Amino acid sequence: MIRSVLSNCSARLLAVLGLTLATVLVARTGGPSAVGEYALLRMLPGLVGVLCVLGLPGALAYFLAVPRRDLPRLWPTLMAIGAGGAAVGTALWIAASPLLAKVFFPHEPVWLIAAAGATVASQLLLTLGKTSLQGLEDRRGGDVVIAAEELAFLPCFVLPLVVGIHGIGAIVLGLGLADLVVAVDAWRRVSRRLGWRRFGLAGGDLGWWGRPDKALARRVSSYGLRGQVGGLITLLNLRLDVAILGAIAGPAVLGGYAVASKYAELLRLPGTALTWVFYPRLTKLDQHHAAGLARRLIRPTLAGVVLAAIPIALLAGPVMRLLYGSSFGSAVQPARVLVAGMVLAGASGVASAYLYGRGSPGLNSIVLGAGLVITVVLDVTLIPHYGAMGAAVASTVTYLSTDALLIGLLLRLSAPAARRRPAVAVGEGTP
């Protein structure tokens, strides 16, 4: 299991390297404003897509675990939810493009922002393929897709630059092409993992398409929606500061802050990797063994992330100026503040995996909901007066608060006395 976590962390580090190189290229060709637009276009379409598929990415690992993966008409049901969500999400993006252009992209034409709606479906296709590999426990395939997800953008962004397309148009094309290339490989791996030929297009019991099961769709959506609340809140806690800062201060200030945020999120990689690896494994374990394993991981993950935070904070200044240039010097102090907010992320990743694995994603959502309240209050209070530094302080307080609550919830629910009580929390129906 440790090897699996390290392998996943390595894949995520490669993804960060790809993202860093892409951000450097965007910064060198378009400056801080282009970096801000790039950050928004990587975040907003994916958010719309996940909202429209009723939490399907979070539910996949649970329903693809043995023995649920053998449910009749499971794949046609999952694909129907995904295809319907992609269509709805794209339509919503196009309809909202005038508002999106006015708030987030004031210097770009509306038609180009509407065209970016195509990345709603492409990001969703990639996300579902990646989380399917997680549920099928194809750890090697999942790690490859995680790394390729960011690495693929660099050549796909260079391609439109070579043919004379620049600015936000090159970013949109690069994102869409990268999504499609990596998504095709992800679904090829899923098909091979399932033993399906012809890319899973045979239908019936040997493919993804067929007649969906309405009752099963309700079960998947029930679990997914309870988990999606937490996933959405996590995304908002990580990215709401970006959206508010972009709307208030503009793309140039946002570009520097986006660089600082991504730099600090290096410390979140171990926790994300732990959630990715342990969620499907804990799903298959009984309560006693799952709780014992989760509790044993708390101390080493806490210590490891705290030790890693020291050099990352010290190197923030040299790294920012070397990679992005002197115009990004203002990102150094926000980056150091954000690093302090990540020190509990490793242990909270274990806590999230435990809650999802025991069939209680709603508890995770409740904790993260409390953090969202803190995020909103602090963002609207601090960002108008302090800009990027205010956003960094608000995010740091939120991260520490929610991570501490998740760790406390894990310790309470995994205690021997708690394990003797029913595993399903109040309000959590059987999926």
Give a quick set of tags describing it.
431 residues, mainly alpha, 80% helix, disordered C terminus
Protein model, in words:
The protein is built from 17 helices and no strands. It is mainly α. It has 2 domains: 212 residues, no CATH class; 194 residues, no CATH class. The longest helix has 53 residues. The protein is globular. Keywords: Cell membrane, Membrane, Transmembrane, Transmembrane helix. This is O-antigen/teichoic acid export membrane protein. It is found in: Cell membrane.
Q: What's the overall average pLDDT, rounded?
A: 82
What fraction of residues sit in β-strands? under 5%
CA radius of gyration: 21 Å
Number of structural domains: 2
**What is the global morphology?**
globular
Q: Helices and strands: which structural class? A: mainly alpha
Distance between the termini: 27 Å
User: Main sheet?
Assistant: none
Given as residue ranges, the uncertain stretches (5+ residues, pLDDT < 50) are 422-431
- Count of alpha/pi helices: 17
Question: What helical percentage do the residues reach?
Answer: over 70%
Write down how many β-strands occur, each being a DSSP E stretch of 2 or more residues.
0
Order of helices and strands: HHHHHHHHHHHHHHHHH
